[in-house]
Amino acid sequence: DRILVLDCLDVNVTAIATSRGIVIIDTGRSPGLMEAAARRIEREFGRRDVRYVINTHAHADHSAGNQVFPEAFIVSHRNGPVSMRSRPADTPGARRYARDQVEKARALLAAADPEEARRARAEITARELMLADLHGRYTVTPATLTFSDRCSLDLGDVRLELSACGRDQSDSDILVYVPGEK
After folding, report:
1. Which parts of the chain register pLDDT below 50?
2. Residue 136's pLDDT is what?
3. Do 128 and 99 meet the contact criterion of CB atoms below 8 Å apart?
4. Rg (the chain; Cα; Å)
């Protein structure tokens, strides 16, 4: 009842409803995609009071939707803001990759069974929305609250434990643990 996980182009966007506001963990690949996810979160929880946004690392596929929540505290590892600014979502290479993914999905449509065709059309729609965002709408929105080793967030009925976990995908990787949900 309190946790929702959405798959947004192979990146999980997780929402946790707490007595002190909603927590969003990772904001996906673009503002438009995150806005669609936020609408779904609002429908599921019947509210939209996002208090915290947590980026599990600073790569754009996990943080490009941060700007959707200007009223929230954005939380990341202390290396996150510099990493985010040095690797924004709207680089020419990122736009080229997104265009290539659209073309691959379009190629699948010709030989796809009905379910594969539905998934390919959904991916095309999502990636085209993302591409539109990356051509002018997206802005780098780094963390407003950072930590080095550990951070605890008390949200009334839920406590979150954030821990730096060393370098896996980036120099800003963190784990989010919800003790009450294990």
Report:
1. none
2. 85
3. no
4. 17
